[in-house]
Design brief:
The protein is α+β, with helices and mostly antiparallel strands. It has four domains: 71 residues, Orthogonal Bundle (Arc Repressor Mutant, subunit A), CATH 1.10.10; 35 residues, no CATH class; 89 residues, SH3 type barrels (Roll); 81 residues, Alpha-Beta Plaits. It has a five-stranded antiparallel beta sheet. It has a four-stranded antiparallel beta sheet with strand order 9-10-8-11. Strands 1-2 form a two-stranded antiparallel ribbon. Helix 1 crosses helix 2, helix 1 crosses helix 5 and helix 4 packs antiparallel against helix 5. The radius of gyration is 28 Å and the shape is elongated.
Length: 339
């Protein structure tokens, strides 16, 4: 095991000893003996380095108590990463997180953050190592994420996180799917949103004086500027409200409508366990079909989702959405008729 990981394990052990209410104020000799038993440490200078590392790298308020002739935390509320008091259930939860992170780390779009993910995974593994009984409970991968390759957007994703966090205005060059040339936009970035395995940037656009959505795989150039940043609060932008009545990422200015859909079996069973949207309610249900209502803006993502159910769904209302679906189905039928 690398020396840095061994040192971290010693920090966890020292933290555990400093918090032991039955044996308060551990001496340097007692800490050395414990580290010797568990990690084979024989040098008192190693313990001194560990104590200093905990003080300066993790802001641990460790002091020597002359009266008690041992070490203590002078701030009782201090928690060393909050790891020492994890229960077995907590460690099992961390095992789940570890499995998910390992799969996400392998996705190309997260290549820029692989070092950070590795550090988190290392921390989880070291935490589990201090809980021997629980650590032995799971030796194999218990979670599998469907890895859909992200071909474009790897570099752009990492370039966008910093300006969002640091509140920097950016200039981008953007090429829409149906455009032949790129266009420059000045954006005050607020949010990164994932939908259907694609990433999008949401931000305020100077030229249009409104919040817009941009697919990051269509950005050909990104540059931070020195322009004054307009925070989301200044324009009353709230991500939850912005997408409250929106399926996907296309949040339009039009008001939400009551959408009524009728699903036949087997889709009716699926739609009840996996609602299309948080506003979904079941209005009617029989052995053969169920009717659901949703409060949504009619956008491209909603139309695409309805069409994905084919003959197992019917748009009851509104009539405008029903006509859109009919038009798309008719166009599909023409493809098969060879017209």
């Amino acid at each position: 095991m690398p020396s840095s990981k061994l040192a971290f394990l010693r920090y966890l052990l020292i933290d555990e000893m400093l918090r032991n209410k039955q044996r308060k104020f551990p001496t340097k000799e007692e800490i050395l003996e414990a580290c010797n038993d568990r990690f084979g440490v024989t040098s008192a200078s190693t313990i001194e380095k560990d104590l200093n590392a905990m003080r300066f790298e993790f802001d641990a308020p460790i002091e020597y108590n002359k009266k008690e002739k041992g070490y203590e935390y002078t701030e009782k509320s201090y928690k060393f990463l909050g790891l020492s008091h994890l229960s077995q259930q907590d460690v099992l939860a961390l095992t789940f997180v570890e499995s998910v992170l390992k799969d996400f780390r392998e996705l190309p779009i997260f290549a820029e953050f692989s070092d950070a993910v590795d550090k988190v995974i290392d921390g989880v593994q070291m935490t589990k190592a201090t809980k021997n009984n629980t650590a032995k409970a799971v030796h194999h991968q218990c979670v599998k994420i469907d890895k859909i390759p992200y071909i474009n957007g790897n570099t752009q994703l990492s370039q966008l996180i910093n300006p969002i966090i640091n509140k920097k205005v950016i200039d981008i060059f953007y090429k829409k799917f149906n455009a032949e040339t790129t266009k420059k936009y000045t954006i005050h970035p607020y949010l990164l949103k994932e939908y259907k395995n694609m990433w999008y940037l949401i931000g305020y656009v100077d030229d249009y004086k409104e919040v817009r959505t941009f697919g990051i795989d269509r950005m050909t150039y990104i540059e931070e500027t020195d322009k004054t940043y307009i925070p989301a609060q200044a324009i009353n932008f709230d991500a939850d409200n912005f997408y409250k009545h929106c399926l996907g990422v296309t949040a339009l200015d039009s008001p939400p409508e009551k959408i009524v859909l009728q699903f036949a079996a087997p889709a009716m069973h699926y739609i009840k366990t996996q609602p299309l949207h948080s506003s979904q309610v079941v209005e009617e249900e029989t052995d053969n079909y169920c009717t659901v209502a949703l409060e949504l803006v009619i956008n491209y993502e909603l139309l695409r989702e309805i069409l994905s159910y084919g003959s197992q769904v019917k748009v009851v209302s509104p009539i405008t959405l029903q006509q859109q679906v009919e038009k798309e189905l008719a166009a599909s039928l023409q493809l098969y008729n060879g017209k």
